[in-house]
Design brief:
Elements lengths: L9 E2 L4 E2 L4 E6 L10 H11 L3 E8 L8 E8 L3 E2 L2 E2 L14 E7 L2 E6 L5 E6 L4 E4 L4 E6 L5 E8 L7 H5 L5 E5 L5 E5 L8 H7 L5
Antiparallel strand pairs: 1-2, 3-4, 4-5, 5-13, 6-7, 8-11, 8-13, 9-10, 9-12, 14-15
């Protein structure tokens, strides 16, 4: 079936776009269990209320292969103790599907983790393109003092698997403030490495 071409205009201030087919948001309560300092999380929830941490607007032509989903994500600035506001993170359900992010506003990080537990960090600012290769678990982190706005695109049959991070009790490293204007990585002592069988099952070609 031939589709009609479309265009979308990105709102770098509000973090949305025209021509969207869907929208969702994640509030602070949705991030329960992601932060090391549970008491600080509860205190922030009581002080700030159940604020929107990030929202996503996207254009989805379908879930068939051979097409693209694209959209805009906007993340508020904020911290829970030393950790920054972040997304839940995921690997694609078809793990060999890649993704790109294109920074529009703010300063953020893409935290990536291989199934075997290797960590990579890509800094994203305005006009920065981040390529997330196949098989990498990834999450976005706002390390700045303003909204982080990014455009993204990925194959429409990718799907998302959010459970892979939960089952390992988080990612191997946590990104925390270094006490100045920057960030650093620290080990996550609760992290449970994936078994060789789990890694092998992920590292395959998907139809």
């Amino acid at each position: 079936m031939m589709r009609e071409p479309v265009s979308s205009v990105v709102d770098t201030i509000g973090g949305g776009m025209s021509g969207k087919t869907g929208r969702y948001e994640k509030r602070l309560s949705d991030l329960n269990g992601l932060y090391a300092d549970e008491a600080a999380f509860e205190a922030a929830l009581e002080k700030l209320g159940d604020v929107v941490v990030y929202d996503v607007e996207d254009f989805r032509p379908g879930t068939h292969s051979g097409d693209l989903i694209y959209g805009v994500t906007r993340m508020s600035p904020g911290r829970i103790a030393a950790e920054f506001f972040l997304t839940r993170g995921h690997i694609h359900a078809k793990a060999d599907r890649p993704e790109i992010y294109y920074g529009q506003k703010g300063l953020g990080l893409m935290q990536l983790e291989s199934p075997a537990g290797e960590t990579r960090i890509v800094e994203i600012g305005p006009q920065t393109i981040c390529y997330v290769p196949p098989f990498w678990i990834h999450r976005s982190i706002n390390i700045g003092n303003e909204d982080l706005v990014m455009v993204f695109a990925y194959p429409s049959d990718s799907g998302q698997d959010y459970g892979i991070i939960e089952s390992s009790r988080g990612m191997r490293h946590r990104v925390v403030s270094n006490g100045a204007e920057g960030w650093k990585l620290i080990e996550n002592p609760a992290y449970q490495p994936r078994s060789e069988d789990t890694v092998r099952a992920l590292m395959k070609s998907y139809t």
